[in-house]
Amino acid sequence: MAGSRLEKLSTIFSRRFYKLYGNPDVVDLTNEQVKTTCQKFIENYFKLQDQEDVAEEDLFQKAIANLKAQGIRLRTITEKESEEVAEAEMSSSENRSTDSTLKTEQTTNNISNVNTMDHYGVDDNLGSSNKS
């Protein structure tokens, strides 16, 4: 009975964890010794639950804080999406800036070429010198 209750709680918390954080791991199915972040979260949650008499929400937050303290980077799905949008906007902005720089360089080169041709008296249409 206790085992099935534990499995049910584990399922509930893993569902809540995945709903909030998505799947932060690449899972190596060939190595059963490596625990996923969600498994670490569940273990941490139950360990805290055994040690403290704290409300469920507080335990959830403490378990998350403990994972972060262990150096595990957790970002909510919303945070990930915001970062992706910001990166896309930055990339788009950089592309526009690069395009603008290239156009400026092309214009500068064209002006320089015209000035050089004028200086040496080269007729653009004929390709010959007009100066005697």
Describe this structure in words.
This is Subunit ribosomal S23. InterPro entries: mS23_dom_met, Ribosomal_mS23_met. Residues 98-116 have a biased composition (Polar residues). GO terms for molecular function: structural constituent of ribosome. Residues 16-71 form the Small ribosomal subunit protein mS23 conserved domain. By secondary structure, the protein is mainly alpha-helical. The protein has four helices and no strands. The chain has helices spanning 2-21, 37-51, 56-69, 77-120. Helix 2 crosses helix 3. The protein starts with a helix and ends in a 12-residue tail after the last helix. The model has no long low-confidence stretch (mean pLDDT 76).
Brief overview:
InterPro entries: mS23_dom_met, Ribosomal_mS23_met. The chain is mainly α and 132 residues long. The chain has helices at residues 2-21, 37-51, 56-69, 77-120.
